[in-house]
Amino acid sequence: MSGATPTPSTFRARPIPAAAGIGLRAEHYRELLAARPAVGFLEVHSENYFGDGGAPLHYLEQARAHYPLSLHGVGLSLGSTDPLDRKHVAKLKRLIDHFEPALVSDHLCWCSVGGTFLNDLLPLPYTEEALELFVAHVAQAQDLLGHQLLIENPSSYLVYRHSTIPEPEFLVEVVRRSGCALLLDVNNVYVSSRNHGFDATAYIDAMPTRAVQEIHLAGYTVNVHPEGEVLIDTHNARVHEPVWKLYRYAVARLGRRPTLIEWDTDLPALEVLVEEARLADAIMDAHDAVADWDDESRDAASSATQGTIAETKGARRKANPTRSARSSCLES
Amino acid sequence: MAPSLREIQQCFIDAVLHEQVDPASIVANGRFPAARRLQLYRNNVFESLTAALRAVYPAIERLVGDGFFRYAAHEYVVQHPPTSGNLHDFGNRFAPFLAAFPPASRYEYLPDVARLEWAWHEAFHAADAQGRSRAARNVASGAAEVPPLDPVSLANVSPEQYALLRFQIHPSARLVASRFPVAAIWETNIQTDNDVPEIDLDAGADQLLVVRRDLTVEVEHLGPGEYALLEAMSRHEALGEACKAALAHQPDLDLVHCLQEHVRRATLIGFSL
């Protein structure tokens, strides 16, 4: 990164394959670089690389030479009534310019008011005012960054009295008005569906297929209270079975997508992350096998061209009654 | 009339930071009361910010113990919550906070240990000696590129100009002085083994250079003259003034050797006239 401005990136711009990837964490730098496991991509928290030099950027450069990269942010605070933090945006842009990530994401959330930041992804009230503000901030951030953003659906533990728009609808509008894409966190959908009692598959059905460019999977924790259970999105365990099930449903509906195994606390051995990534790959492969078999049957029955196959494939998935019926027992 | 988004967010943050604020006006009750739901966010916020402080101040945590550390961290978060979404900046006032924190007043060395740990944290993330462009390009547009110090070019400076030389110190270099042996206290308390040797608090003062050499942050003891020299240079004093300060603190300092060493080890990475 030395030299005069602006230094062209030394990395090949690599798109992220529709395969499973893992988070890159400091504890795994050396092992990952030595073993170089066959995963589709690496994802990091952008803010962990906001330093000006030293080990984090050094190791990320090394890792980036071998893997496509996704930059996942937790601090843009796009839903805040505070103006966008230009310094934060500039630091993110510096990372984007240098590392040429395939994907850049942040959350449908807010973190600050009046310049006080809480280190958490706080839920928004879903109102027209919040929608307008969020869309404006996404559009502004995309302009400043020169990069499309993926917006991730949050996990939440409360709803506001004044919310008027269902969360999936809010997301659809954000996409439509700002031109951003979506990061569908299947664990968050599951956690929120359990906490608020909505139908997780209906939520996924509401996502605009093409806009979903990445999927997140993670483990949650169950908190037991006198009034009942609350699921907390803790990213500290293997993906739970109901979330795998919901993931199968999402893949059946959306097709293959870059899928991240998120694990942030109580970090396991690197090989555990890779194992979890293999499970996600296997689900995508199984989906492909079924889709291919369906297509072959369809081919035999018609003389359709490649182009129309692709179209009918999309239509079939959308309307597939068998899959919807099977998945509706998820909530039981 | 429905509250504005700003009013909702202000109420939420106030309720997270101050338990006496009731979130019931903005949060729906449902199966759980609003206060219980907000408590989940309060837990997450304090847990994650305490973890962030713990990551920067492992020796402080070891010295005061987990319970006291959580208590101090909670008070710190309430008094000095983060002011940006970049968590690297969080915790910068922990040393003065501890100095003014009555429950910690018996442990006079704590603020100095905290200052050492913050210096270590800053050194870890500071710009590299070469390629400071990482920092400069988009963020600090006024910052200049840092050239590596070429000893040959130094030899070309005529002797009558020596006093006017201004050395550039490594961007990661931080100077920490204490009347306590903080380096020994710190070093002992970042080890994970259970046997902590006794440290004599009267073992003498420390004057330390914290600097990243390659990728590793080092904590190095300096003599009084050497400390004064680097301290003056970090204030961009010219060599003449810096040497005066060094000799005032340590008349017998071997200035030439001292300068050569810090050039060789890249504490000093450039100069200008």
Condensed summary:
The complex is a heterodimer of chains A (332) and B (273). By secondary structure, chain A is an alpha/beta fold.
Task: Give an overview in words.
The complex is a heterodimer of chains A (332) and B (273). Chain A contains eleven helices and twelve strands. Chain A has one domain (20-290): TIM Barrel, CATH 3.20.20.150. Chain A has an eight-stranded parallel barrel. A two-stranded antiparallel ribbon of chain A has the order 5-6. A two-stranded antiparallel sheet of chain A has the order 10-11. In chain A, a hairpin with a 2-residue loop joins strand 10 (221-225) and strand 11 (228-232). Chain A has 332 residues and is α/β, with parallel strands linked by helices. In chain A, helix 1 runs parallel beside helix 2, helix 4 (128-145) packs across helix 5 and helix 8 (241-254) runs parallel beside helix 9 (270-301). With 273 residues, chain B is mainly alpha-helical. Chain B folds into two domains: 1-95, no CATH class; 108-273, no CATH class. Chain B has twelve helices and five strands. In chain B, a hairpin with a 2-residue loop joins strand 3 (206-213) and strand 4 (216-221). The relative contact order of chain B is 0.10. At the A-B interface, helix 2, helix 3, strand 5, strand 6 and helix 4 of A face helix 1, helix 2 and helix 7 of B.
What are the defining features of this structure?
heterodimer, A: 332 residues, alpha/beta, TIM Barrel, eight-stranded parallel β-barrel, two-stranded antiparallel sheet, globular, disordered C terminus, B: 273 residues, mainly alpha, 2 domains, three-stranded antiparallel β-sheet, 12 helices
